[in-house]
Design a protein that fits this description.
Elements lengths: L3 E5 L1 E7 L2 E8 L2 H9 L3 E5 L14 E4 L23 H17 L3 E4 L1 H9 L4 E2 L3 H4 L15 E4 L4 H6 L4 E2 L7 E2 L7 E5 L5 E6 L4 E4 L10 H9 L1
Parallel strand pairs: 1-4, 1-5, 5-6, 6-13
Antiparallel strand pairs: 2-3, 7-10, 8-9, 8-11, 11-12, 12-13
Length: 228
């Protein structure tokens, strides 16, 4: 068995077979497939109980996408477009991330996962990116990925995985980093200046604002498993 990779997941209402409009722990299966393809063993971590206590049983951690973080965590009032805030998920994931960073666990943050990392370390967020960049290409509409190119910063861990040329990736986010947290380095941006990836020195700690699980390039999951 390969390295055990914990992946956080959603807790939302869903319908399938006999289960109609029922609370469910769920995750797009692409996350699972990407980890398996990279040689890891995925384990889903719902935002329940005390998942931070599982860190010692994991070889790596992925914080997956999801709804917006409670703006109170970075000292802001809610924007009218902030939504899908799940405070119980914030509680679980912020504690889980703190334990993972303390243990030096290899970490990959995806979309919301980048935002959790930045806020946990003292940064803040733009609550509605179109107010900042003047367009909606980062999140064109419900159920539609944007495909903006991101440019990796030369010499970073991200550039070692993806190369230094611009690469089009699937986006689905209406929030982004505002104030960068101490200890994080920007590793990719879009042409409009949006921070699209960060990392920190020391143990493997990488986070991207886009959705690599929905991309044809598997390099980030392979880098995580290799670090494990």
């Amino acid at each position: 068995m390969g390295p055990v990779i914990g992946i956080t997941c959603y807790a939302e209402t869903a319908s399938f077979t006999v289960w109609q409009d029922t609370p469910a722990a769920l995750l797009p299966y692409a996350y699972v497939e990407q980890v398996v393809r990279a040689g890891g063993q995925p384990v889903l971590l719902p935002p329940a109980g005390e998942p931070a206590g599982l860190v010692r049983r994991l070889d790596g951690l992925i914080l997956a996408g999801g709804g917006d973080i409670d703006p109170a965590r970075y000292g802001a009032e809610p924007h009218e477009r902030s939504g899908y805030v799940r405070k119980f998920r914030d509680d679980a994931e912020f504690a889980l991330l703190a334990a993972a960073l303390d243990a030096g666990l290899p970490f990959l943050g995806i979309c919301r996962g980048l935002q959790v990392l930045n806020v946990a370390l003292g940064g803040s967020l733009h609550q509605h990116l179109p107010d900042v960049v003047g367009h909606t290409d980062h999140c064109p509409g419900p159920g539609r990925f944007g495909h903006l190119p991101v440019t990796p910063v030369p010499g970073t861990g991200l550039s070692k995985a993806l190369g230094e040329e611009p690469v089009a990736v699937p986006h689905y986010h209406h929030q982004s980093v505002d104030r960068l947290a101490p200890g994080l380095t920007v590793t990719a941006t879009t042409e409009d200046g949006t921070i699209e990836a960060v990392e920190s020195s020391g143990a493997f700690t990488m986070a991207v604002q886009w959705h690599p699980e929905a991309a044809a390039d598997h390099a980030l999951f392979e880098a995580l498993v290799h670090a494990c």
